[in-house]
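Below is just one:
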Amino acid sequence: MHIQAYLPRRKAPALQIALAAVLALALATQAQAASHDNNVEWDGLFHDQGPLYNSAPEPTATQTITLTFRTYKNDLTSANIKYYDSADSSFHWVPMSWVSNDATGNFDYWQGTVPASASTKYYRFQLNDGSATAWYNAAGITSAEPSSGDFFIIPGFKTPDWMKNGVMYQIFPDRFYNGDTSNDVQTGQYSYAGQSTQKHAWGGSVYADNGGSNNLVFFGGDLSGIDQKLGYLKNTVGANILYLTPIFHAPSVHKYDTEDYSTVDPAFGSNALLQQLIADVHSSSNGPRGYVILDGVFNHTGDTHQWFDKYHWWSTVGAYQSTSSPWYAYYTFQQWPGTYSSFYGFTSLPKLDYGTSGSALRQQIYSSGTSVVQTYLKAPYGIDGWRLDAAQYIDAGGNNGSDAVNHQIMTELRQAVKSINAQAEILGEFWGNANPWASDGSQWDGAMNYDGFTQPVSEWITGLDYSGNTATIPVSQFDSWLHGTRANYPTNVQQTMSNFLSSHDIQRFGTRAGGDIWKTYIALIFQMTYVGTPTIYYGDEYGMQGGSDPDNRRTFDWSTGSSTNSAVALTQKLTGIRQQYAALRTGSFMTLLTDDNNRIYSYGRLDQNHRIAVALNNDSTSHTVTVPVWKMSMSNGSSVTDLLSGNQYTVSNGNVTLTVNGHYGAILAQ
């Protein structure tokens, strides 16, 4: 399974079990449920590193950190913070004090302060009711002290605020919009590895004719087309971060086989046009100011790159041509020239050998002022971040990464990026738990969230994994999966994880959903209200279909791409809601309800200004849902507004009751 951690069942006295059966009376009786009875009531415990519970989620070395913990009223006799300090490799204790009740009188708040220092720390809570003890950390609640899964304190580690607060849009350039037909690759324009290019009409098949290479099928999408559609991206969709798959010169349509890092592929335009596109994204005259992330393919090059030059396309001498090539050490040959390390065994993608710190290749890719990484971060380009393709594999000696050398390279790359722009984003591609790269502030800011978003969302909503295989999970397991994967990362990393329904490497969500647009609706509602950076793979906003590569890279249907389409209109409304409420971007996340029988999921997002309860119905028919908003300290008689329908509801007996359509949701704001 992909679940990283489970929330244990709480220990509960008979009274609490009875209360669960009469949830409608929860608010009236909840204050009576807790007492000093040598039993810690697990249901009342809550802490995360949101702004209500952590005074400094991104502390400096001189900031103290005041931590707040919530319990049922009168439940605890004492509470402590226990933290591990990397400075002395020892545990330390901080006693907590009761400070207040919540507005409903159901909960107590306890606080303690961790002293300021520059060292990384990891903390958990010890919670006591007389002789009974419970432990609480990011992984969950246990009766015995945990040995892992603690919350993080990493002084000096800051992830980009614009990434936390933005909505990202991923484009595969050849398939988005053809803004300049003069640079279209024509049928037979050139050959590569014995295959010729093919030009297909927009909307046509992505598969090559007559047994040709799918990687040489072109439709004509380009940077000019993207520039012309910025109004759609910024104002209709509501996305302000543009992530482009590779745009540098390469023979294939996907450009992951780089031929020249210094040149924009002529089929996409020119370096001057890239500068113009970036400037237009950054401009606020055509919509909100935006940001640009480029795809950095630094694990391997294409075999046509000047450094390798398998086909003698360059006047210089590449590593494939001579062991005396100045770039011979950039690759790892087992038997020169025909046997060499490559990406996943694709000989067209020879793997780069980064050697030791300070090597010529490291200088070329990221270390020097004229390196690839630094050049595009600087004027006249000024991109805002890099997405690192196949980042786990970047290494020396033909090895496949995920070792000390890989982490050394990632640390050096971060230092290079941040030296140019401290607010630049470093987004790593990793399909599992990216904790080794994104947990201590030394390497990535975030990662492609296959493990903590794409896979569980697909399994819960569509009953298929992201590869299209049958995999169905109930909502309780969905919630546990989400909780476990959030626990892998500091909160500021969670908030910059890229949460996407589809990507250029997996089946389209719309296909996994069987073409049911309502499943796209509920997925969009969850995507825009969950923790992380919502990332729309072009066309997902209208439920674009597509199977495995290359079918997941179809051309955009511009007859559908407008707010007259119901899914696009919903996307526009959701991105607007997310922008309006900071609680949906950086607030706490609290599970409110999991109902496996009716496939109902409800959770809260909250900060000092707003409390928002989201209710999702993943069933095919409508259900009446009773949302226990008392868990978010919403008071009886107060009102909430569904930001999707405009309907208002009154909190009664601690709950809000409403009807939610099948495969849809409600966003109840107060």
